[in-house]
């Protein structure tokens, strides 16, 4: 295969990847977007295999790697629960970062195989590209591992605030720049591995101070990092497809992180440097009496069947309980009774961007009933019932009303403005941000304590009586 043909096919792959991102921007076109991405990746892989023309042994090793990786991916995809998707994404990001480190190491030890020079005389441009790729890749690897541990509950979701962390991080960043300059000038293998070591440490230190409420932004940010790592290595390899793909992933991840930070009224820099949420809950001296009104499934069924408009607010509690199918059944019952039903999605509900949208789509909830925060927030004041199912921090009025709250300024779904707020939750415990939700204690709130799926199923049964 000629170089021109390979470049053309890589360009076709890049166009398909762009079409995939465009398709994934809306639920109705997401399946087609996935298909574009799969076809584009298949073309890129086959083109690389043919253009590289490896030896027979090399070809066998490549096929073995594809079989092992593809087989493991297929098994994991089939077995993974939707509730575990955020930590799966974080784990996959770590593999992208590790791959970038390994490719950079291979290029350092066998540069002639990559056409970037010989050992001890590697092109300076290639060394810069290699250094950036390995640094970002190593940061992505350990950062993603920490994110996985936090999301999976194997590490506390609360911020781990180390003393003088900003000074340490700044020192490590400056040290990385110095080491990259030294690597370009000396081409020392020892300095290369020092860059890897410092980057691995920096990846840990960047993520551990970030609290659970910011985890969706972290997942998006790490996605961006993995893209830039891939792009950097793409320059080292001279692979157009990898450069295009990495740039697309890096830029789209950065844009998504910005959009999410804007949706939380948070500075992206403050998220990365400061963490969010402390080890203790927010102060409770807001004048609200600390008593709750607890109801039953029968109470909830009566209120909703006699309502004109019900807005459903799903959150991570729904995902954990896998209550989306029961929720859709409840909504169908309400619509049969002539009740208007809509779903309200907060941009950071769940543990990753689009988490709630995917779960609702899985339950075949009509797309035209699902609305984002800015499109539906004004409608809560006209709603008879807001049915909150496991969405805690994103409904906390403290973010709107209490200037002393750590989440003050974060846009929330104004469920407390509905005539009645039915809140389904296992207990009165704080959310992932570790902050007490004052919504529990408001006059218009009725707590439905219990498993989200069981409670919703009981409400459905009560609607038939």
From TrEMBL:
It is found in: Cell inner membrane. It is a multi-pass membrane protein. Its EC number is 7.1.1.1. One of its GO terms (cellular component) is plasma membrane. Its main location: membrane. Residues 8-461 form the NADP transhydrogenase beta-like domain. Pfam families: PNTB (PF02233). The chain crosses the membrane at residues 6-23, 35-52, 58-77, 89-110, 130-151, 167-185, 191-210. It comes from the Bacteria. InterPro entries: DHS-like_NAD/FAD-binding_dom (IPR029035), NADH_DH_b (IPR012136), PNTB-like (IPR034300). GO terms for molecular function: NADP binding; proton-translocating NAD(P)+ transhydrogenase activity. It catalyses: NAD(+) + NADPH + H(+)(in) = NADH + NADP(+) + H(+)(out). The keyword Coiled coil does not apply. Keywords: Cell inner membrane, Cell membrane, Membrane, NAD, NADP, Translocase, Transmembrane, Transmembrane helix. The transhydrogenation between NADH and NADP is coupled to respiration and ATP hydrolysis and functions as a proton pump across the membrane. Complex of an alpha and a beta chain; in Rhodospirillum, the alpha chain seems to be made of two subunits. Belongs to the PNT beta subunit family. This is NAD(P) transhydrogenase subunit beta. It comes from Nitratireductor indicus C115. The lineage of its organism: Bacteria, Pseudomonadati, Pseudomonadota, Alphaproteobacteria, Hyphomicrobiales.
């Amino acid at each position: 295969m000629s170089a021109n043909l390979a470049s053309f096919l890589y360009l076709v792959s890049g166009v398909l990847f762009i079409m995939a991102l465009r398709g994934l921007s809306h639920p109705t076109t997401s399946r087609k977007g996935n298909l574009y991405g799969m076809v584009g990746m298949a073309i890129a892989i086959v083109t690389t295999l043919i253009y590289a023309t490896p030896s027979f042994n090399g070809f066998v090793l490549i096929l073995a790697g594809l079989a092992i990786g593809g087989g493991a991916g297929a098994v994991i995809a089939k077995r993974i629960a939707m509730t575990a998707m955020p930590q799966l994404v974080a784990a996959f990001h770590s593999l992208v970062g590790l791959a970038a480190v390994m490719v950079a190491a291979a290029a350092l030890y066998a540069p002639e195989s990559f056409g970037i020079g010989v050992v001890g005389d590697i092109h300076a441009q290639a060394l810069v590209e290699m250094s950036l790729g390995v640094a970002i890749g190593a940061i992505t690897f350990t950062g993603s591992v920490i994110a996985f541990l936090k999301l999976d509950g194997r590490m506390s979701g609360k911020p781990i605030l180390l003393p003088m962390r900003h000074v340490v991080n700044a020192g490590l960043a400056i040290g990385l720049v110095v080491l990259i300059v030294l690597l370009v000038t000396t081409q020392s293998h020892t300095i290369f591995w020092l860059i890897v070591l410092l980057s691995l440490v920096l990846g840990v230190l960047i993520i551990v101070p970030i609290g659970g409420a910011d985890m969706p932004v972290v997942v998006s940010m790490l996605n961006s990092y993995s893209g830039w790592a891939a792009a950097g290595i793409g320059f080292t390899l001279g692979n157009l497809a990898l450069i295009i793909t990495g740039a697309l992933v890096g830029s789209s991840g950065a844009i998504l992180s910005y959009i999410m930070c804007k949706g939380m009224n948070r500075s992206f820099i403050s998220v990365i440097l400061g963490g969010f949420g402390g080890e203790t809950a927010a102060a409770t001296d807001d004048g609200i009496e600390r008593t709750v009104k607890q109801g039953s499934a029968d109470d909830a069924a009566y209120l909703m069947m006699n309502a004109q408009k019900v807005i459903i607010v799903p959150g991570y509690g729904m995902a954990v309980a896998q209550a989306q199918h029961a929720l859709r059944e409840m909504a169908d019952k309400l619509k049969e009774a002539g009740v208007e039903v809509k779903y309200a999605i907060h941009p950071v509900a769940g543990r990753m961007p689009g988490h709630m949208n995917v779960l609702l789509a899985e339950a075949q909830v009509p797309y035209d009933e699902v609305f984002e925060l800015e499109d539906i927030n004004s409608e809560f004041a006209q709603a008879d019932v807001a049915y909150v199912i496991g969405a805690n921090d994103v409904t906390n009025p403290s973010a709107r009303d209490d200037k002393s709250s750590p989440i003050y300024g974060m846009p929330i779904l104004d469920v407390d403005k509905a005539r009645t707020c039915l809140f389904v939750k296992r207990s009165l415990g704080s959310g992932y941000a570790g902050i007490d939700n004052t919504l529990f204690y408001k006059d218009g709130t009725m707590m439905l304590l219990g498993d989200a799926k069981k409670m919703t199923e009981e409400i459905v049964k009560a609607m038939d009586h």
